[in-house]
């Protein structure tokens, strides 16, 4: 069975700081990778996804993520955060032949104005 | 932008009672899902549903749980006899085809079992 680990449970940073959230997964086969964001009181929204091709993927709101196959990692980055990036971020993995998502534990990000 | 709608947003029920959580998926989507998140824990897959039958379910989805698409628009999750440990946020999602590419999640129903 696959599993997904997010290294940080809570991150606090100031506006304009850079953000990097770690995500590692365990699964030997082909996977699709996702980052979701959940703003307070709202539903899970897709930030970006990786299926194949260029391992550096760009998503919405200035986020990007890099798939490093050898490290089973898919870290999320944003060069300069804003107060509005305060949210919980979830990494998720899907077996390429499957349907369900396996989520990491989430990282709560608080951006101080 | 089309949305997945879940009702109610919060439900409190007594242990042993039956609850039905309701979802209205996006109208042209074919796959439907339920996930849950116990407070402080991961979002966990419960079940996927396609063509009026369960296509995949997790170990969590035991005989106490059932899903139904009663009228072509609603997608419900029923818990027959709730337990304290069923307290969680339940998320409904839908996608147009197989695969999570087009997943759209609802805002969730917070179920509290007392």
Folded structure, characterized:
The complex is a heterodimer of chains A (113) and B (114). Chain A is 0% helix and 54% strand. Chain A has no helices and twelve strands. In chain A, strands 2, 5, 6, 10, 11 and 12 form a six-stranded mixed sheet that branches. Chain A has a four-stranded antiparallel sheet with strand order 3-9-8-7, with no helix packed on it. Chain A has a two-stranded antiparallel ribbon with strand order 1-4. The radius of gyration of chain A is 13 Å and the shape is globular. Chain B is an all-beta fold. In chain B, strands 2, 4, 5, 6, 9, 10 and 11 form a seven-stranded mixed sheet that branches. In chain B, strands 1-3-8-7 form a four-stranded antiparallel sheet, with no helix packed on it. The interface between A and B is medium-sized, with 24 and 25 residues.
In short:
Chain A is an all-beta fold and 113 residues long. Chain A has no helices and 12 strands. In chain A, the strands form 3 sheets. In chain A, strands 2, 5, 6, 10, 11 and 12 form a 6-stranded mixed β-sheet that branches. In chain A, strands 3-9-8-7 form a 4-stranded antiparallel β-sheet, with no helix packed on it. In chain A, strands 1-4 form a two-stranded antiparallel ribbon.
Question: Which shape of chain A, going by the Cα principal axes?
Answer: globular
Our estimate of the beta-strand percent of chain A is over 45%
Poorly predicted tracts of residues of chain B: none
Average pLDDT figure of chain B: 92
DSSP strand count of chain A: 12
What are the secondary-structure elements of chain B, in order, as H or E? Answer: EEEEEEEEEEE
Residue share in helices of chain B? under 10%
Q: What characteristic shape of chain B results from the CA principal axes?
A: globular
Please work out how many helical segments of chain A DSSP would assign.
0
> What is the CA-atom radius of gyration of chain B, in angstroms?
13 Å
- What is the quaternary state of this protein? heterodimer
Largest interface: A-B, 24 and 25 residues
Rounded Rg of chain A: 13 Å
Order of helices and strands of chain A: EEEEEEEEEEEE
Give the fraction of residues assigned to helices of chain A: under 10%
Q: Major beta sheet of chain A, specifics?
A: 6 strands, mixed
| Helix/strand/pairing category of chain A | mainly beta
The secondary structure category of chain B is mainly beta
């Amino acid at each position: 069975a696959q599993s997904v680990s997010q290294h940080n449970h809570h991150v606090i940073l100031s506006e304009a700081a850079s953000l990097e959230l770690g995500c590692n997964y365990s699964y030997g086969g082909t996977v699709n990778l996702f980052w979701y964001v959940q703003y307070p009181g709202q539903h899970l929204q897709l930030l970006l996804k990786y299926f194949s091709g260029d391992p550096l993927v760009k998503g919405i709101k200035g986020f990007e993520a890099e798939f490093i196959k050898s490290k089973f990692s898919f870290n999320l980055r944003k060069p300069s955060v804003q107060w509005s990036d305060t949210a919980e971020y979830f990494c998720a993995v899907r077996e390429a032949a499957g349907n369900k998502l396996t989520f990491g534990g989430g990282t709560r990000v608080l951006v101080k104005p | 932008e089309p949305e997945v709608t879940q009702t109610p947003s919060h439900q409190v029920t007594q242990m042993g009672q039956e609850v039905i959580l309701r979802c209205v998926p996006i109208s042209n989507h074919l796959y439907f899902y339920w996930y849950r998140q116990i407070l402080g824990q991961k979002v966990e897959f419960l079940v996927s549903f396609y063509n009026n039958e369960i296509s995949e379910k997790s170990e969590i989805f035991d005989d106490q749980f059932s899903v139904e698409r009663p009228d072509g628009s609603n997608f419900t999750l029923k818990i027959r006899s709730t337990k304290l440990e069923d307290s969680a946020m339940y998320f409904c999602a839908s996608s147009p085809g197989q695969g999570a590419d087009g997943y759209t999640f609802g805002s969730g129903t917070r179920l509290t079992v007392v």
